[in-house]
Every structure is written in structure tokens, then in C-alpha cells.
Amino acid sequence: MFGQYFYHSKTKKAVAIFGRLFNNLYVLRANSAGQVISQIKVPLAYAPKNKFLDRIRSNPSLTDDTEVAIKLPRMSFEITSIAYDAARQLAKVGNFNTTSLAGTTNKRQKFFNPVPYTITFQLNIFAKSQDDALQVVEQILPTFNPQYALTISPFAAEYPTFKEDIQIVINGVSFSDDFEGAVEQRRTIIYSLDFEMKLSYHGPISDTSVIRKSTANVFDIKAGLNDSDLQLETIAVTPNPTTVFGLEDSDFGFSTAITGILGEPNTSFTFSGYVDSDYVSN
Questions:
Q1: CATH of the domain at 154
Q2: How confident is the model at residue 85 (pLDDT cuts 50, 70, 90)?
Q3: Is the pLDDT of residue 26 over 90?
Q4: Contacts of 59-62 spanning 24+ positions with Cβ under 8 A
């Protein structure tokens, strides 16, 4: 129904980009004298909050009934919603073009303006003490004011020079502490940070031909017999040289050929030259 198959992995890339922001956080633990006695890198995984809580509280073995709780602190994140963002929508007919296709000067690639969407992420920080949790939170909050901008290359192969800016905005922080549970229940402190990522989804990249000639016919309206239109001249514009392609910084021009009637029937002329220099008559 939709035609051409395409897949740009934009959602997959968005998850990888978001996770990479928080994959290098540490928690330091010190003794009463203030000396650091250990340093822990906080693990990060993509997982729903509730499922992750089940793993924290108990992790049954497949071979026996022994239950081993996973270590804290730990972080997880997940996508909670994807919504259309009408405020960032550009003109739908706008498009981007490559300079050329490999091995040819008669074809080009293009794609139209993307469709903007907002992806909502939730980052959860699990810890067994407030100090561990707050160390992680305070390493994150100063980075977002309230947004953080990233620049990516969404089409590194087809468009190596095409860049896209992505805004990640923090919306709020909430926390919970289940210390009021049963004595045998393990205490878990959870900080939840909500983010919005301003992402754009691109359509298929299509192959189109390069325009090599533009022709315009000039008429005198109702000047002919029976009020028909009388053709006066034909204007044809071609690049010079005709094989030029993808040389935006070069000084090539365009040749213009004008063929038409000069006062008397069956009299024609041709006029050509560069558009960026003085015309020279043939």
C-alpha cells in the first residue's frame, strides 16, 4: 500500500543515544574520615520499571529455589510514549538532495522534510541508600537546563554531511522509598526522571533524474488566426558543460539558446552564452 520499503532505525538510534548519556556514572563511598574506599560504576539497562523491581527483590534460579538479589545502585530506562509534535512540522514539500549517485551524473537522491515526533523516556535510579541515589541524580540534573542538545548524522552512508540536532528535555523528577514495608522486605529507593526527546522520522530516499535542459515557449496570446496563440520564440537553457554535477562551488554557467521570429515569417535566430557573463551571439 505504501510502496517503497525503507527503514532508517530512528527509534533504535534514539534508544542508543539516550542510553549513552547515562552509561558512565559512578558512585563513590567514603569512610568517616572522608577517604574514598570504593568506586562503583552504575550499571544501565533498558527495562520496564516494574520488571526491574522484581529482579531487584528476587532472582529465582532455574536449577534450585535459591534466590539472589541483584546489587544496587542500578539504573534502567524505557520508552513510555511516542506522540506527534505539530509545533515542529515543516513544509511537507521541502526536500534534501545528494550531489550525486555513485558512478553516475544523471541521477540524484532526495527525501522530503521529516515528520516530527516526541519520544518520552523514563530513567529510573534504584539504590539502597539515599546517598547513593543522590550522587547519581546530581550528576545528571546540571546537564539539563532544561534541555540538552545532540548532533547526529542520521544518514552517514547516503548523506555524510547531513546533520540533525536532537533536543532532550527533562520534565521532572520523582522518588519513592519503601522503607515502611515489612522487616524482611528489602529497602529500595527509586528516583524517576522523565525526559522528552525531539525526534524526526524521515521517509524513503528516492532516486530522481537530474534536470539537464529547461525549455520555455513564448506566445502572443490570441495574435494568430481565429484568435489562436502565436508562438514568438523558444528559450532553451542548458548547463555548460552539460555533464556538470555536484560542483556547487565551481564557476560553471548556463547556455541560453533563443529561437524565434524576427519580424518576418521563416526567419529565426539563435542566441547563446553564460548567464554569469556577457552574451555572445552565434
A1: 3.30.2000.40
A2: very high
A3: yes
A4: none
